[in-house]
Amino acid sequence: MSRYIILMLLGVSVLASLVGCGQTVDEKMDQGIANAESIFKANPEKSTEQVNKIKFYLPSGYEIEASSDDTNIILSKNNNAFVLFNNPNESADSDRFYKSLKADKEANIVKEHSFKQKNRFGFVSVLKSDDKQYEIIVSNGGVKMTTVTNGDDIDELIEQMMQIVRSLKITKK
Asked: Domain extents for the chain?
């Protein structure tokens, strides 16, 4: 069953990239959010990296820049910087990050969507940062990842960010 989901996601990704050339930023956001929901509901990717006690999947092209502790990891891809934050005190069904964002009257939310499955909660939010920049927030329980982008590859970033946050696990080592 999970092979079918992975093949389906790959097919959707290839089709989206072929069609993506003519898409607006708004359409790319919708596609990224739809892909993120599929990833949220599927089995997580296997870990490929470990920083301190945190294991996670890191898609091709991403690099680990810095780690200050077991809660914050700085990643990069091309010209984008990403902050991967883990709150080990929050469970997989935590909606604390989501409620905090929704309560922020200053947040200029362009698109957002939340996901629930069994005992897990996640969401994707895209905020307008300035005229040509968007902030992406992707979360799975107590794990959150953020970046700022111009929107050109917003669909791919949303999808990859969900793969990363969905895969994060804490080890005992």
From this structure: 2-170
Q: What is the pLDDT of residues 5-52, one digit of tens each?
A: 554 545 555 545 544 457 899 999 999 999 999 999 999 999 999 998
- Cα-based distances in Å from 3 to 8, 11, 43: 8, 12, 10
DSSP assignment, residue 143? Answer: E
Instruction: Give residue-wise pLDDT tens across range 24-36.
Output: 999 999 999 999 9
Q: Are 47 and 167 in contact (CB under 8 A)?
A: yes
Helix ranges restricted to H, 20-122? 25-41, 96-103
CATH architecture of 2-170: 3-Layer(aba) Sandwich (3.40)
Sole residue written with tokens 């959707």? 12
**111 bridge partner residues:** 126
Nearest to 85 by CA among 159, 145, 136: 145
CA distance 69 to 99: 25
What is the value of pTM for the model shown?
Answer: 0.85
How far is residue 97's CA from residue 139's CA, in Å, rounded to a whole number?
Answer: 8
